[in-house]
Every structure is written in C-alpha cells, then in structure tokens.
Amino acid sequence: MANFSKSNVPQFSVEVYQNEYLPEEGREVNAIVTVTATGGGTIGTAVSAPHLYSPGQGPSAAVAIMVDCSGSMDYPPTKMRNARDATAAAIDTLRDGVHFAVIGGTHFAKQVYPGGDRLAVADAATRDQAKQALRKLSAGGGTAIGTWLRLADRLLSSADVAIRHGILLTDGRNEHESAEDLKASLDACAGRFTCDARGVGTDWEVKEVTAIASALLGSADIVADPAGLSADFTQMMETAMGKEVADVALRLWTPVGTTVKFVKQVAPTVEELTGRRTEAGPRAGDYPTGSWGDESRDYHVCVEVPPANIGQEMLAARVSLVIPQPGSGAAQNLGAQGLVRAVWTDDMAASTSINPQVAHYTGQAELAQAIQQGLDLRKSGDMDGATAKLGRAVQLASASGNADTAKLLAKVVDVVDAATGTVRLKAKVEEADEMTLETRSTKTVRVKK
Prior knowledge:
The protein is of the alpha+beta class. It is built from eleven helices and 22 strands. The strands form five sheets. Strands 6, 7, 8, 9, 10, 11 and 12 form a seven-stranded mixed sheet that branches.
C-alpha cells in the first residue's frame, strides 16, 4: 500500500482541543479536532485507495467542467461570453496529464469536448482544441442540473485516477427536473467525485447551489458580476490541481456505552457530517472529508459518555484519518490520531470552564444558522423575526472577529450596536448582496490558538 513517508505526499496530523473535565453525572464531551495536511506539493502525484501515482506514472486527476448553456445565459449576451472565457482560463490552469472534459448543460447534458463519451488528456494541443470547441457554446434550452452531474460522473469514472473533480456553473433555477430528481443525482454522485458550484448573476437559487457543493464536498459561491468568472474559475482549478489525497475519512471510535451526538466540519466552513457516517467495524464510523492538498480544517466532535463517579476517567473517543477501500472492509490508515478524554471532578472551576476553541466554533455554527434563518424569515415577511435573528448574527460576527461576515451583514441591516445585536432591516437591499450573504453564511473565521 501507499508509503506515506514519501516527500510528495502530505503528512497528516491531528490535534485535539477540549476541556476534558466533567462534573459528577456529567455526560456530554465536546472537542475541536484540527486536521492538518502538510508537505505535499509535488505536481502530478495523488493518493487514493488503491492508487498511488508518482511523477511520470500517469495522470493523477480528472476534471469535468459543467457550463450552463440554458437560454437565460444570453441575458445579457456578455454572460455567455464570460462563461466561455472562464472555462478557457480553467483549461489553461490544467496541468499536463490531467484527464478533462467540458459539458454544456441545458435540460439535458451534452459533451462539448472531447466528445465520444471519453476524456481528453491535457497537453498544449488538447488545451487548444478544447478552447476552440468552446466557440460552439451557445445559449438555448432549459436547466436540469442532475443530468449534467450524471454525465460528469460517467466521464470521470472512466479514468483510472485518484482525484475526480467537477466545476459547475449555473445562472438559473433547476426548473426542468424535480427536486427529487436532483437529489437522486446528488446521492448517486456523492463519494464518487467532489464538485465546486458557482451561481452567476442573481437569478439562481442559493439553496440549490449550496446543496450541490455540500453533497459533493466542494465549495459554493456567488459570482454576481459575470466579469469575475475567469478569476474565480482559475482559482478553483488551481485549488483542484493542488489536491493530492482523495477520499479521506475521519474515523471516530467510541467505547461501549458512548453515543456520538454529532460530527461537523467547522472551519473553513460549517458542514454537517453526522448523517453521512458509514459504519467501519465495531463501535467505529467513518465521516467523509473529500480531497486534501496542503491545508488545515477543524471539526467539532460531540459524544455522550456513561455517567461516572468523581475521580474516574475514560477515553471518550479516538479520532484517526483513513482512506476506506470500498468493498473490502479494509482501510488505509494515514498515521495520525487524536484522543478525546473524559475526567470527572468535583472542581467546579475546572468542570464548568468551556474550552475557547469549542466556544468559538459553537458561536460560528450559530452564526451561520442565524443568518440563514433571518434571511428566510425576511423572505417570508416576518420582519420582527428576521430582525432578531440577523441582530444575533451581527452580535456573533462582532464577538468572534468574523469581519468578512460582518461586512456582508451590514449590507442587509443597519447596525445600531454590534455588541448587543441591535439592528434595523434596510428598506432596500440589493439582491446580489442578500444572495452573497446567504451563500457565504457558512464561512467561518478560525480561532486564534
């Protein structure tokens, strides 16, 4: 199996931040788990069970770019031109040897390049051919995003590579298939490739785009001005090209009598993982984290332990990183683990202290929820409820130092007093500002450790 001492493969480390002290009869244990991957960075190498490629051994990645070609992409005509330019910029960012395809999406999916139900391999010639093929992209038809994703999955799965990634651009609502059909497509594609989703303009549905990114463990964002697409696509592709380890799972082992209450990613964005658990042997479960390059992420783990007497202690959970090998029941261990402990004490100061990292990320998760609830209440006409929720969001953003979110909130509400969360809803809000706040509501600021 893969040798993780190789210099071109990231080394994983796990750090656990928690207050392990519980009062008598205390049962809930919270911990922030910081996972860091460092030391990768050799272009052309990727790891995923059962593949380990070294430079020159072949392609490590496959990428499908899905471009909305529905009729609305012609309004204004510059939108389609910007989408073509952005796709060309992404193609230029592909490294040699990466498999790729371009898909045009309407109420059905069509291959723009290379065609023939296959992928091209990036080099100077195929990049040029792909950019020539983009000239055929024209707007007309409806929107059925599930069909785009299924074609991407079919193409990506044809390549014997480690990293499979999609980039999806839409400018409208998914009006030509049911919500159930889209969900079925997402369920079918989950775990098979990751996907970044972007909404361009302001006529698309935020919850659809964020649901795509969430299900496929990618990022979601708004590009309100189509002129910004090329820079965004270039950055997305650069990030995708930096991924070197795929299909990494956070494995949580708990002892008899211990219950997992939740597992969620809390930085760089809030992402609920609890319902995505896959059983991994006695008292162990795997939570998918997607692909990794050189980066660090934080996870909030909450478990409920059996009550115990003062002076007792126990291992409440063990966290490790693995690459599951589907079908075999085995997993490749990435050699990093962290321990979550519980110690019962009658020292009130110790048992009532909240760990700063746990407190910070609990606030960040509440901030994301308050924004989403506040915007939903505003849309439904409940202005008092919206004011209360968005006021709480302003208070949390201010207290945690989340300056980016505070700036976005200030475009939707007039802030009277950030410390107390006293705000007034703005009478007129630009649609792009409201959609940007909603789309980026789950972005968190990291705690200073």
